[in-house]
Each structure stands twice: as structure tokens, then as C-alpha cells.
Automatic annotation (TrEMBL):
GO aspect biological process, one term: negative regulation of DNA-templated transcription
Entries under InterPro entries matching the protein: Metal_Tscrpt_repr (IPR003735), Metal_Tscrpt_repr_sf (IPR038390)
Protein name (record): Transcriptional regulator
Source taxon at top rank: Bacteria
Similarity annotation: Belongs to the FrmR/RcnR family.
Matching Pfam families: Trns_repr_metal
Gene Ontology molecular function terms on file: DNA binding; metal ion binding
Amino acid sequence: MLHRLRRAEGQIRAVQRMIEEGEDCLKVSQQFMAVRKALDSTYLRMTMCLMEQEFGTCISEDPAERERMRSWLKDMESLLAGVG
């Protein structure tokens, strides 16, 4: 998670430099889009982590049930990743 945030931070700094240097707006916009995607992806992973932690405390200790829930969470992650 921190690696992804550091990468996004580097991209944001690059956008700042581009603006300071008067870079073409289209190039700045493209870099903004890359930053946004990086942050969206990180947010999705954090949300899925939270859901896994919360659901983990609610479901039974049955290994089959836990695996079913993990599989469901992976499916949800795939669906949500396609929304952005």
C-alpha cells in the first residue's frame, strides 16, 4: 500500500513540475489521469482490505465458509475495479 502511495506522490510531484515549467495542458492532463488511476486503485485495495477484516470477524470459523467469503471478496474487487 505504501509503495503505491509513494508512486502516486512521485506522479503528483511530476505534475507540479510540469505546471511550473509551463508544460502543454494535454500532457499535464494525461499525467493527472495516471495519478487518478493510481489513487483509485490504491483506494480500492484499501476498501477491500477493510471489507475482508470486517467480514472476517463476522463469519464462522469454518474454513470452507472463510474460503467462500475470500472468493466473494475477490469477485467484488474485480467488479469494482471495472467501474472506475
